[in-house]
Amino acid sequence: MAQQKDKIQKQYFGRILEGQYSAALKTRVSEGVGVFVECEKIDHQIIPYIAAWHEDDRIIWYEYAGQEFCDLLDCGFEKLAESFRKSIIDQRVYRYKDREKKVEEKIITRDELRGAWKGLREEVKESGRVEAVYKVLTSDNNTVWLKDQASIETFEEDNTCISIGFLTDVTKEMELKDLFERIGYIDELTKLPRRSILDRILEINIGNLQRGHIADFVLMIIDVDHFKLVNDTHGHQAGDYILATLADVMTSTTRKQDEIGRYGGEEFYGFTVGDITIGLKFAERLRKRIEKYKFTYKDKHIPITVSIGLVSATQAGKVESLTADQLIFLADKRLYAAKQGGRNRVVSDV
């Protein structure tokens, strides 16, 4: 135990363990530092840290941080908080509309961060967690992205909060995301993947199916019923509102294995791994959610329904000769049957 304490003291440059703080706070920080000291012995891709702040003060300091953090910013531990603060280009904050499904990204610039610190602190204190990505300029003028995931603990007696968590380098992922957005991966109106991405999804999953990595998958084409009437009656701005809101509604209804994208115009596509039964459940979940949702534009309620045609890969013929065009043709044929059958319905066979 004494040996562990000596190790902590050698790597400790914080304030709490040697300051006028409660025994509970000191114990928590000491435990955290001890665990992270041991973590540093393992070859890993994460940077552990413990940050702290007084609730009435904007200054944050570090009770502990992995050596890689200091190396990244080319500074000593004592200057880490200041160096990190100055290196931030922007912060991406992620808020959950639906705890399991819908995530909103908000970009806060360096200048905005200066004025927003109090509100952000209150928000993370209330939620008890941090989930953000920092765009950081390093000392050698390279840009890196650091994902921050941490839990927040408040010690009222000390008027102090601590954040215990990890930073992860997600530069490759964020650069890829930015590239996709620049080359038109994302539809500007709906913020959904475009039609071109569907071709890649089908190509990858046909290959997975043929190699036996998956047993089946489902493609669906989704069309807004009587959309021309919405534009003619309420105007094209109302139509744009419907499409953008519809995208949010559908995205909030998906699970991790489901995909939603914009096919073109008022048509969308859906994709999920699994057989036709799983696909039908997904499609019906979407249809019912849209039917019940109250689309309101300029105080006017606009009832919206969708028709959906879907096909599973194993329904489409021989797996070894399956093509994306076959799947799209069959899904579109079943969508037409749904329209002819009265709309606001799902068709999986004709």
Order of helices and strands: HHEEHHEEHEEEHHEHHEEHEEEHE
Output the structural class.
alpha+beta
Largest sheet, order of strands side by side?
Answer: 2-1-7-6-5-3-4
Count of separate DSSP helical elements: 11
Overall shape: it is elongated
Residue runs with pLDDT of under 50 for 5 or more positions: 1-5
Terminal CA distance reads: 72 Å
- Range of strand content: 25-35%
Arithmetic mean of pLDDT: 88
Summarize the main sheet: 7 strands, antiparallel
Radius of gyration: 26 Å
Give a count of the beta strands, DSSP E runs of length 2 or more: 14
Classify the helix fraction into a percent range: 40-55%
Q: What features would you describe in this structure?
A:
The chain has 350 residues and is α+β, with helices and mostly antiparallel strands. The chain is built from eleven helices and 14 strands. It has helices at 2-10, 23-39, 67-73, 80-87, 110-127, 171-182, 195-210, 227-234, 236-251, 276-292, 324-340; strands at residues 46-54, 60-65, 88-98, 102-109, 129-137, 143-155, 160-169, 217-224, 258-264, 267-273, 296-297, 300-301, 306-312, 346-347. The strands form three sheets. The chain has a seven-stranded antiparallel beta sheet, sandwiched between helices. A five-stranded mixed beta sheet has the order 9-10-8-13-14, with helices on both faces. It has a two-stranded antiparallel ribbon with strand order 11-12. Strand 13 (306-312), helix 11 and strand 14 (346-347) form a beta-alpha-beta unit. The longest helix is centred in the middle third of the chain and has 18 residues, at 110-127. The N and C termini lie far apart (72 Å).
